[in-house]
Amino acid sequence: MNQLEKVKALDAYEVKEWKTLKETRSEGIVLRHKKTGAKLFLLSNDDENKVFCIGFRTPPDDDTGLPHILEHSVLCGSEKFPLKDPFVELVKGSLNTFLNAMTYPDKTVYPVASCNDKDFQNLMDVYMDAVFHPNIYKEEKIFRQEGWHYELESEESPLIYNGVVYNEMKGAYSSPESLLDSCTQKTLFPDNCYGKDSGGDPAFIPQLTYEKFLNFHKTYYHPSNSYIYLYGDMDMAEKLEWLDREYLCHYEERPVDSSIPEQKAFAEPIEKEFHYSITEGEDDTNATYLSVNTVVGTDLDPVLYLAFQILEYTLLDAPGAPIKQALIDAGIGKDVLGGYESGILQPYFSVIAKDARRDQKGEFLSVVKGTLRKLADQGINKKSLLAGLNYYEFKYREADYGNAPKGLMFGLQCLDSWLYDGDPMMHLAYEDTFTYLKKAVEEGYFENLIREYLLDNPFEAVVIVSPEKNLTAKEDERLAGKLAEYKASLTQEQLGKLVEDTRELKLYQDTPSTPEILAKIPLLSREDIERKAETFSWTEKREDGILVLHHNFFTSGIGYLKVLFRTDAVPQEDLPYVGLLKSVLGSVDTERYGYSDLTSEIHLNSGGLDFAVTSFANLEEPEHFTGAFVASIRVLYDRLDFGFGMIEEILNHSVFTDEKRLGEVIGETRSRARMRLENAGHSTAVSRATSYFSPTAYYNELTGGTAYYHFLEQLEKNYDSQKNAVAAKLKEVAAKLFTRSNMMISYTADDTGYEALPRTVTLLSQKMPEGSGERYPFVHPVENKNEGLKTSSQVNYVARCGNFRSKGFAYTGALKILQVILSYDYLWLNLRVKGGAYGCMSGFGRSGEGYLVSYRDPGMKETNEIYEGIPAYLEAFDPDERDMTKYVIGTISGMDTPLTPSARGARGLSAYLSGVTEEMMQKERDQVLDADRDDIRALAGQVRAILETGSLCVVGNEEKIEANRGMFGEVSNLTRG
């Protein structure tokens, strides 16, 4: 009996629709649970990486972040699993390949994934119990911990707000891009849920009451309002029967009004301005975000849904895209962002000029509308549209989402229609839509879309986000004053109550769940784990004299080609220009193509070409490493000749002498580098602190980190006087890098895919100059700068980094277990649960480098003190066998995440260049699987060595860094202008 027949035989469900989805190689079945009206969608196929997700439509009616706080809170214990943090226990002790929960503007989803059948069942059970029977009704402290609470250590202490979501959203609101997104939705949708922030505005989060919080759960977390998704290779009927028996059958259908009314279109465009904070030392002249945003139909039109993704590519994303180019030509902004924002009932299209002047608003609108009118009247470049279509079709077919299981991404995409009472398969069945749109290119369809939705559409908002110096400091001062005033109004009895509440919350957080309660979470045994480590699959070959590393995997007919050039062919002082080359190449003309046409050519014939600079540690000699410039392209097997030919065209024939274009690329690169540094402050802090003692990290700093950003700032500032020298230097660096003697190839494909390589490689290898073979030394200045890097953020990112091998300690697989123990036990409890930081991370590598870092953290000095306590914590570490097994399984989960073919090839390349052998991988796995308490206790030495390295970096709040100046060797702005 096949899956469909078995499902149809179940009395509890009715099949509403079924069909074969060739695009996902699945059988799709849409169901309704008869007793409750719960909606279910199954994608049955042979993928071992199974996915389960339950979601609810959760429209917010205010800015308190109620859906977001509830998402955190339901994972803090339930009826069947009453421990305080089952989510963390699952992270520590399951073989999940994905485990999380996400709040969107109109829905909250709880997805899990695993390749292990028993583990998958356990994950489903914990998540179903969490959403339907959470402990939030029994324990009010969950709400205060995850949402917000008053914190008063003593009657003399200042009164403050704290809470995990409160601090998370302070971090989100510190990003001008996040602020712009939120303000755009508020402006476009004043009358429905999209005008409220489901994540929470920190200014409003403390208005949320416990009663309203509980009522939201009672209202929306009911099977009648649920969307249940199952994907992969499993007995679907068995899972459905279990869902009904254990959970759904205990409920009756009831009306839940979670419908999302459409926002009525505006009679005319509106305009609003908002402000974001910059530090005193930052220039506010060219720091405004100008945006125009237009609502585009609904998510229930599958053609529109795909067509506007193509328009985003054609109008904004591709180098030389007409709207982007017109704004840059007019001197409006250094970068142009925006695009098609879907995943809500009424998607919208945005054009954003970043780093513009406030007084350019009129010109901005004139350029955007004028360019659109010209395109509508005179036609869009058809080659660019077809390139966009091919690029997106390649991405859809490849379904490579990096670390995220593709089944998860299909599940999220189906909600783009299903949540609004549409067919969940609407956007997954894309083949016919692509066929239609390819014909429509010739029929003026895209030009008509521009007219109808972007020109003759009054449902539009102009949103401006402009800088205000010290706004964060002013708001902090206002809040401190408000809380001090409130504190002063309290009676002695009320003050005592706040102090007692603070003490009781900390006691609750400090009190672990009992072993009996912890044992309720199902756990696999070590015997359930495969002992054999995954092998590499590379063969060293020589083709036309060039070293080729062939990674032999099945790739569905796609070849993943990487061409590498060692960067020690370039003097150390020129390494920042190597970093710049990765942004310039492909974005400037070549001798045969203009840069816009070049992009179209690439995407018409491949899945994309990109450039990167990376490094590979030398495990034999940690003071050495291999720096590499990498050109990567993904092509169908029969287009490998195109791949080599296009790489050759760009490497050998790029034109650096167009000073206008080069200046534009530098400006955009600098703008995006700043965004990356500020939005990933934890990575910035770790990279910077590690560079004090690590040659590899110092190299990464020069080619892509904070030091590289400062290089870009100076380059942009002095460009007019240095442009000829910059162009000459890029040409000189390219000539040194791109030579036959400096080249190797990594190719991921099966034997059939490899057959064309010996012939096609000559399209590149025989056209490269031989090169001198000269190598330049790399000198690393060892210096613990211990910087405080100030930003206008409301939160901090605190990093401590160091090296244990330099102190004589060896790498062991037990360090992988330590990462789980710290990130989800010691650091989680102290930094997140008690400290209110949104995240905490740690990592320990074979090179001996290790890091500890916090994310969106209200603390700074306190966080550093918690790091200092780790060795003592480890020396007293005393888990029982069940806990130790849990940590081992959680560690293996991270090691055994299924990899896409491209990721498996990249893993092999990294191992090859770093000197990682299969024997080393097996030894590491054995050390993990056999680890006991004493192995973990012994790691106190490694952590002490890391801390004794003494390397600290904090990226964060200007006032807090100034108040803690004693922690730092140097204090400066992260960005220097």
Question: How would you describe what is shown here?
Answer:
The protein is α+β, with helices and mostly antiparallel strands. Helices cover 45% and strands 19% of the residues. It has 39 helices and 27 strands. Strands 1, 2, 3, 4, 5, 6, 7 and 10 form an eight-stranded mixed beta sheet that branches. Strands 16-17-21-18-20-19 form a six-stranded mixed beta sheet, sandwiched between helices. The protein has a six-stranded mixed beta sheet with strand order 24-25-23-26-22-27, sandwiched between helices. Helix 2 (66-73) packs across helix 8. It is globular. It starts with a helix and ends with a strand. 51% of the residues are buried.
Radius of gyration from the alpha-carbon trace, in angstroms: 28 Å
Helix tally equals 39
**Helical proportion?**
40-55%
Q: Which blocks of ≥5 consecutive residues have pLDDT under 50?
A: none
N-to-C terminal Cα separation, in Å? 68 Å
What value does the average pLDDT take?
A: 96
Main sheet? 8 strands, mixed
Category by helix and strand content? alpha+beta
Strand content: 15-25%
Instruction: Find the count of extended strands (DSSP E, 2+ residues).
Output: 27
Sum up the overall morphology in one term.
globular
Write the layout of secondary structure elements.
Elements: H1 3-8, E1 13-21, E2 26-33, E3 39-44, E4 50-57, H2 66-73, H3 86-93, E5 96-99, E6 102-103, E7 107-114, H4 117-132, H5 140-146, E8 149-151, E9 160-162, H6 164-172, H7 176-188, H8 210-220, E10 226-232, H9 236-246, E11 270-278, E12 288-295, H10 302-317, H11 322-329, E13 335-341, E14 348-356, H12 361-378, H13 382-398, H14 406-418, H15 431-440, H16 445-455, E15 460-469, H17 471-488, H18 492-510, H19 515-518, E16 538-543, E17 546-551, E18 558-566, H20 575-584, H21 595-605, E19 609-617, E20 625-636, H22 640-653, H23 659-679, H24 681-691, H25 695-704, H26 706-717, H27 719-737, E21 743-748, H28 751-754, H29 757-760, H30 762-765, E22 787-791, E23 797-803, H31 814-833, E24 839-844, E25 849-855, H32 861-868, H33 870-875, H34 881-895, H35 901-914, H36 918-929, H37 933-937, H38 940-949, E26 951-957, H39 958-963, E27 970-973
Helix pairs in contact: 2-8, 3-31, 3-34, 10-11, 10-13, 10-15, 11-12, 12-16, 13-21, 20-25, 20-27, 23-26, 24-25, 25-26, 26-27, 31-34
